[in-house]
Amino acid sequence: MVVSTSSFVLCPGPAEHPARMGLPALALLLAVRLLSTQASPSPRSFQVDYERNCFLKDGVPFRYISGSIHYARVPRPAWRDRLLKMHMSGLSTVQVYVPWNYHETLPGVYDFAGNRDVEAFLDLTAELGLLVILRPGPYICAEWEMGGLPAWLLWKPDIILRSSDPAYLAAVDSWLHVLLPKIKPHLYQHGGNIISVQVENEYGSYYACDYGYLRHLLGSFRALLGSEVLLFTTDSTRAEELRCGTLQGLYATIDFGPGSNVTELFDAQRRVEPKGPLVNSEYYTGWLDYWGEAHASTSAAWVAQGLEDILQLGASVNMYMFHGGTNFAYWSGADYKDQYKPVTTSYDYDAPLSEAGDPTEKLFAIRMVISKAHGFVLYRTQLPQDIPDPATLSAPPHSICDRGYVMLHKEYQGMLERDGQMTLRVTGKAGDTLDMLLENMGRISFGANVSDFKGLLGNISLDSIPLNNWLIYPLAIDTAVQQGWPHAAMPKSSSRGRAGPAFYTGTFETPGIAWDTFVKFPGWSKGQLWINGFNLGRYWTHRGPQQTLFVPGSVLHVGCPNNITVLELEGAPLTPLLLFLDRPLFNRTLSHSISATE
């Protein structure tokens, strides 16, 4: 079977929204990583880089995309199911509260068995390749009974909770001396997966504003967990709450939900943390319910758009909640807003995973936003001056991850490659558009280098002068192709091949039965193939050895045309065509011994 195609010039679609920022932020914008349980070489570290405004994990810039789950609200047999679904949604990290009253129901009586086995929960997250942000309180809020504080604290009627009251601090210290030694072996620096630990919770919203209390907690956490662990706070963006809830030595993060100006809200964090990574520790995917009131609901599109806005700023984010679960037994809390408002037994929270653990429309919308960190991103800027004579366009070593296709004034100039060519010679005029299409060829999945960041990780220079003012387009190509683009959106421009990135589209019909088959790319170089919106993967015929792609019969239509879309990155043949075969082809084979890696 032969399929001929028509070509289209690659350009960002109208639905793509650029984010303007300087080059130093580009690494964070695209920093979504795969995790494995393989330990990185010693020493392991997780810290704040105040100069580059990012986290460093083992010395490498890192940005997390996290979701909240509460082990106390999920039956232990369901822990694995919920965590796997969170990981498969694209999360690298989970955020976890530890409710004090769940474990110390009476003074000095501790329970860490069964559903209360927090260490087993942490071990499971590590087994599944998830990092953890731990929030051990002592106060957690979480719409949990008394915010996680034990009710027996009230046996002393005049006690002042969440303050420097000696009676309160004595109980807190006793609890922390039980809990934190259990947590310490799970810290990232000690071979575990806890990358950061929150001290207290939204303390700025509490009337006491007791800095002595925060300093006491800081000292206790440092004494019991060590000097290397990253400790942080979380507060709203209101100035008064940030004033009372932050303390030197605790990295200040903020929380807010969708529907706001993300840049303005992060400005609030910058007022208390002028340097360091932007972090939203509670991005609200929904809201809680109160008895007697309407069920809270938040638009999936609204949540997804807000998440995309956060990620485009290069910020780290935790989605609260990703799976809410259930307030079993008597553990639901209450609010007081002019009147007493008890919280329902369900803590569904209109979260991406429902109370029963089922994926929702919101989960798929969020996963689509996260998935934009895979595949292709277009970087665009303009030449700052005339270049009548050839100048050297260059990138630092290891800054192109993994291949960058360069176009100047819509003309293909060549390709820069990880561990390969890192310079091109170009000419142009001031104001000419310089595009670089960055391709992610796949993240390292084994060994010490799994922190494999993608995108443009350093300054692109023209005769050693850095280029600035880049626009960044995360290209949702899979979504566009599934919706019929470019078949339905663009006119035919040519039936001939061209150099550089371009789309080629066509149709074909199957001869009666949709058999499994293989497609061959005679004369093509490297790219991606879709049939009926299904992404069949990468082809790279001129490098080999694979010369064909497998086409499952299940993706083919019988009795109606099949749409085929090819994104050729380097250059198509003069007469673009594809061949369908009954077997795979390889242009060379190599016999070698196989060593186990799993």
Helix and strand arrangement:
Layout: E1 2-4, E2 6-9, E3 19-21, H1 26-29, E4 46-49, E5 54-57, E6 60-62, E7 65-69, H2 79-88, E8 93-97, H3 100-103, H4 118-127, E9 131-135, H5 166-183, E10 194-198, H6 211-225, E11 230-235, H7 239-245, E12 251-256, H8 262-272, E13 279-284, H9 300-312, E14 316-323, E15 334-336, E16 340-342, H10 361-371, E17 376-382, E18 387-394, E19 400-401, E20 403-408, E21 411-417, E22 423-428, E23 433-439, E24 455-456, E25 461-462, E26 465-466, E27 470-474, H11 477-482, E28 502-508, E29 517-520, E30 526-531, E31 534-540, E32 548-551, E33 562-568, E34 577-581
Helix pairs in contact: 5-6, 9-10
Describe the structure.
Mean pLDDT is 86; it is low at 1-42 and 590-598. This protein has 11 helices and 34 strands. The chain has 3 domains: 2-9 and 484-581, Sandwich (Jelly Rolls), CATH 2.60.120.260; 63-373, Alpha-Beta Barrel (TIM Barrel), CATH 3.20.20.80; 375-444 and 452-473, Sandwich (Jelly Rolls), CATH 2.60.120.260. 40% of the residues are buried. With 598 residues, it is an alpha+beta fold. The strands form 8 sheets. Strands 7-8-9-10-11-12-13-14 form an 8-stranded parallel barrel, surrounded by 5 helices. Helix 5 (166-183) packs parallel to helix 6 and helix 9 packs parallel to helix 10.
